Amino acid sequence: MCCEDLNAERSQRNTVLNMGFLADVKGFLELIYEIGSPKFFWITFTRIIFPYFWRTLWHGKSIEYRALDFVKKTAKEGNPGSVLDALEEYHLNYEVMMAVMPEKRRKIEEVARKAAPKVCLEMGCFVGVSAMAVARHIPPGGRLITTEIDTLTAKAARELFSFAGLDQVITVVNERAEDVIKVLRSEYSVDKLDLVVLDHRKWSYLPDLKALEKGGFLHKGTVIIADDCFWPCVPGYLEYVENDPRYQTERFYSVSFPGVFDIPDAIAISTYKGGDNN
């Protein structure tokens, strides 16, 4: 086998072992450092890291595809609520996933139901819990664009959306959020956004929100949902949306990794009241 083939095989293997589950490893390590207790380190290794790698090597599939298999076996096809319930069950009873779970999901659904958004952008898809929670409340003719930088994770998300019957509503873009923002108008015909979900690289929340402002994508009434706002790697975001007079912001207190760590956390739900780019 030539050197190029060996490098390609090694790259493919590393891609499988570093799927979306570990895509935000920088932020997760900062969270571990912030908490810093021996119990936290032990649970992280025994409940998350070791099972993840062992199952990936044993099954030859990443956690996204193991969750997809579970959904196809237990959920009702064409029923987004059933698919979301199955993902929640998988997370709580089988494997810990870096996905929005149960209290947060219900809050996001509540916000989406009230907003009834027609054009939405999510940054950070993973297995698509937030995307489906929003999309099932989008009126006919509406759409949601979601970004996912990992190719295999994006593929798994598309399969989940298809199984849930939402593939005509949700478009998965396999690119970085900041790159998608630059072409929202030219390639996706987006003028204004009704709802935005931030759940990607935590340190990108504020820069990407400002990019949406600069691009004129926000209108009076646009709702911005930002997950994991208590994580130590979300610099400046809460201060910005809570102190800028253009935003009305509320916090929804919850926990990250429910049933495992129960780390105090919050979702920031901001409504854009209009301003420079209204």
From TrEMBL:
Gene from which this protein is expressed: LOC110974991
A Pfam match: Methyltransf_3
UniProt-listed GO biological process terms: catecholamine catabolic process; developmental process; dopamine metabolic process; methylation
GO molecular function annotation: catechol O-methyltransferase activity
Keywords: Catecholamine metabolism, Methyltransferase, Neurotransmitter degradation, S-adenosyl-L-methionine, Transferase
Broad class of enzyme this protein falls into: transferase
Domain of life: Eukaryota
EC id: 2.1.1.6
Keyword check for S-adenosyl-L-methionine: yes
Protein name, entry field: catechol O-methyltransferase
Entries under PANTHER family matching the protein: CATECHOL O-METHYLTRANSFERASE 1-RELATED
Similarity comment: family membership: Belongs to the class I-like SAM-binding methyltransferase superfamily. Cation-dependent O-methyltransferase family.
